Amino acid sequence: MRYFKLILTFLALFTGLLANNFRQNSNVILITLDGVRWQEFFDGDDPFLNDDVADAYLGESFPIFWNNHAKNSTIYGNLKSKSPMTVNGIPVSLPGYKSIFLGHNHNCRNNSCDRVLTETFPERIARELHLDKYQVAGFASWGKIELALEHDPGNIFVNTNITDVDDETDDPIIDSLNALQKSDPPKGWGGARRDIYTWAHGMHYLQKHRPRFLYIGLDDSDEYGHKNQYESYLASLHQYDKWIDELISQLKTMGEYGKNTTIIITTDHGRGKKKRWTGHADFSWNRHLLTGKHIWCTVLGNQVNPLGIVKKIKGKSHQSIRPTVELLFGLTPSQPEKALLEAFNSFK
Asked: Residue 116: which H helix or E strand, with range?
């Protein structure tokens, strides 16, 4: 036990030194794609489900990413490469988002949980780096994500569902998007707006405010999954692929800001297999939520060590994201052993 404690102490000191290697102008953009299975992310459409799917959506689900950006990324969660990445707890949305932003265990087990009770990593970034609320921002299609983003509302800039975006400026683009999203509410989606408006708001905010941390949470994929609309689900993934490419291209036009920005993309939970793909898992008392626990994550940017699909890397989960982002901002992470250490050149 004594040696184990010594190892942990050394690791904490080591990662503290690594954190200091990062410049204070580092930026992070975190994107979550709700309910996107690792199978479609890595392997494309599912032959068991692709009957009557248009040819445009067959094959790779993220063709632009795999053809143009995977070589510049470090990618976790491919079970075929013996590199699983998992949820912490059960594969349900709000518990998953809480694990991401808290970076530690919690008591939330369903989507009816209350707001997080302790400081999230976006809140910590704002507090410790003395940033105003507009420099740490989150946009999400699903309204309940706001319960995972901050424990004290108002510490950071948060906008979800079809609520108006208001950055306290006179902005006709924001006004137009606010009007459009209200005129086009998705029916039967229960507390979510269409991703096209979430993405448009997030990209406009990126160009206007150049935030140090920006979160964009997209939801169409999960909604179509629950409705058993596989073609629409795949269409959402192809749209996400185009938007990710758009983001990367945009950052290349933003000078030092773009060069210093790291992108992290992940999902909140997996899904079931075959006919049970519409749910988050094969819900069974005998096989407790086995399939939906598997997730994936990709990291890319100039500071990233581009390993492609990592092999034989285990122990990664939602709780790996917080310490990774904290290191990128020069903050000493509370759980350094969980970070995506191999993804960054400065961690060598």
From this structure: none
